[in-house]
Automatic annotation (TrEMBL):
Belongs to the major facilitator superfamily. Sugar transporter (TC 2.A.1.1) family. Pfam families: Sugar_tr. GO terms for molecular function: transmembrane transporter activity. Residues 8-498 form the Major facilitator superfamily (MFS) profile domain. It comes from Lutibacter flavus. It comes from the Bacteria. This is MFS transporter, sugar porter (SP) family. The chain crosses the membrane at residues 7-32, 44-62, 74-93, 99-120, 132-153, 173-192, 253-277, 292-313, 320-340, 408-431, 443-463, 475-494. GO terms for cellular component: membrane. Keywords: Membrane, Transmembrane, Transmembrane helix, Transport.
Length: 512
């Protein structure tokens, strides 16, 4: 495999790194920005989820736009939008400015998630395509790791009391640091060639040959250019496919399988855990500092098990990985629900007196009172202190009051992340690329990708409200029950596509 091709694939998939970074960074940011702007549950959900909402729009238009003006130009614009979003978020002076800045970033990562794999596939040879496209998924999880590590160190500097950072500005630095990888992405993209396949589709055959010669040498380039020309000629002969054609009886089964995978991947709550990781860990009473440190452990788990998935997917098969993964997800979520359900909450008079930023007199009515659920405890805290004061001191309050098996909950969350990382995370996209006939593949993946993004947005938007109104235990129980139902649905309908040609899969699954 050419080092130049690997470098190009890595550069292009930096868009995935920035998506992971943005998704991971917000979990720490909201611990400070939420109280700073005194956000309600709905506003908190919108700040976190607004990029996913914008990404849905970008996914609908970026593919077609890149067909017209080119993959490279759109990806350069994506890098620029990431940089603008990072700076605007860091300088946000209001709730409205913060979510608008984040929506700009959402447009960027929505386009990047669609176009980076497309571009990489178009510069890859057939035997290396799978490995090169998988760099995108690896970069996403590395982005998560970098974000949680960054958040941990910024929080540590802030709490040390020996730096320029304060509760009022630390979240701005957390967001602003994204400018560095974004501007590097922008600069590196100028060293990336235009897609040879796109050049051929625009009749620029000679320019495409020059690109392929540089990537593979003349002999391999000749084979690739012939393959590209043949593919484009066949594509031009095909009729345009409408969305309604996906509803044909012959495609009904694979459409159902695809939609089940697309919905299940997000409705089990993966982005609730990623985007609100620091807040979730705070609920276990381990304190703010330990919550940030636990985020690093979470992201390392993701990286490790994603690499495992890359090695196992062609050996173990899609169906076993997905069934084992979804079973593990269900068990892990139910373990979390059980752990939170056993928790009790009590603030003694001595503990109340030790709070530095809280007037002890305001908590006299709740002193020594034992709560058997987090909802009643938090509601009484908010009534006594006000939402903003409680939000600023939530980590310290829960650390003092919570009696819980935090290790059990941590095992449940890490188990969920690990099982997702080797199953629903990467395997869903592989199966979507295999299930549908070539004629319908692009449209079908676009539709299911849109549904997947919509479910992701709903989960992120609703989760803060869900925690406030249903509590920790019930929230995880809901996700766990959905995962159990998902396991039995997949057990019944999920086909195996390992080791089969696309033609063989079509022959077996598309009903005539």
């Amino acid at each position: 495999m050419s080092k130049k091709v690997v470098f190009i694939a890595f550069v292009v998939s930096l868009g995935g790194f920035l998506f992971g970074f943005d998704a991971g960074i917000i979990s720490g940011v909201m611990s400070y920005a939420g109280p700073e702007f005194n956000l309600s549950d709905g506003q908190m959900g919108w700040v976190v989820s607004s990029p996913s909402f914008a990404a849905m729009i970008a996914m609908l238009i970026s593919g077609r736009l890149s067909d017209i003006i080119g993959r490279k130009k759109i990806l350069i614009a994506v890098a620029f939008l990431y940089a603008i979003s990072a700076l605007a978020s860091a300088y946000a002076s209001s709730y409205e400015m913060l979510y608008i800045a984040r929506m700009i970033g959402g447009l960027a990562f929505g386009a990047a998630l669609i176009l980076a794999p497309t571009y990489i596939a178009e510069i890859s040879s057939a035997e290396n395509r799978g490995k090169l496209v998988s760099i995108q998924q690896l970069n996403i999880v590395l982005g998560f790791f970098a974000a949680f590590l960054s958040n941990y160190y910024f929080n540590k500097l802030n709490t040390s009391g020996n730096s320029f950072l304060t509760d009022e500005n630390v979240w701005r630095w957390m967001l602003g640091v994204e400018f560095i990888p974004a501007i590097l992405y922008f600069l590196f993209m100028f060293f990336v060639p235009k897609s040879p396949r796109w050049l051929c589709s625009k009749g620029k055959l000679q320019e495409a040959k020059v690109v392929l010669n540089k990537l593979y040498g003349e002999q391999l380039a000749k084979v690739e250019i012939e393959s590209i020309e043949k593919n484009i000629n066949e594509s031009q002969k095909q009729e345009k496919v409408s969305i309604m054609e996906l509803l044909k009886p012959s495609l009904r089964f694979i459409l159902i399988v695809g939609l089940v995978l697309g919905i299940l991947q997000q409705i089990t709550g993966i982005n609730a855990v990623y985007f609100y990781a620091t807040s979730i860990f705070k609920q276990t009473g381990i304190g703010t500092d330990a919550s940030f440190a636990s985020g690093i452990l979470l992201s390392l788990t993701t990286v490790f098990f994603t690499i495992i998935a890359i090695f196992l997917i062609d050996k173990m098969g899609r169906r076993p990985l997905l069934l084992v993964g979804i079973a593990g997800i269900a068990i892990s979520l139910l373990v979390c629900a059980y752990g939170f359900n056993q928790a009790t909450y009590q603030l003694t008079s001595n503990e109340i007196a030790q709070f530095e930023n809280i007037e002890a007199g305001k908590l006299t009515a709740v002193a020594n009172k034992v709560y058997d659920n987090d909802i009643d405890f938090k509601n009484d805290m908010k009534s006594a202190l006000g939402n903003q004061v409680y939000a600023k001191n939530e980590g310290a309050i829960l650390e003092a009051a919570t009696n819980i098996n935090a290790t059990l909950v941590l095992i449940g969350i890490l188990g969920f992340i690990a099982c997702f990382a080797f199953s629903l995370g990467p395997v869903m996209w592989v199966m979507l690329s295999e299930l549908f006939p070539n004629k319908y593949r692009g449209l079908a993946i676009g539709v299911i990708g849109f549904v997947n993004s919509f479910i992701s947005w709903v989960v992120q938007q609703v989760f803060p409200w869900e925690l406030s109104n249903f509590g920790n235990a019930m929230s995880f129980l809901i996700f766990g029950v959905i995962a159990v139902l998902g396991f039995f649905v997949l057990l019944k309908i999920l086909p195996e596509t390992k080791g089969k040609s696309l033609e063989q899969i079509e022959l077996e699954l598309v009903k005539n």
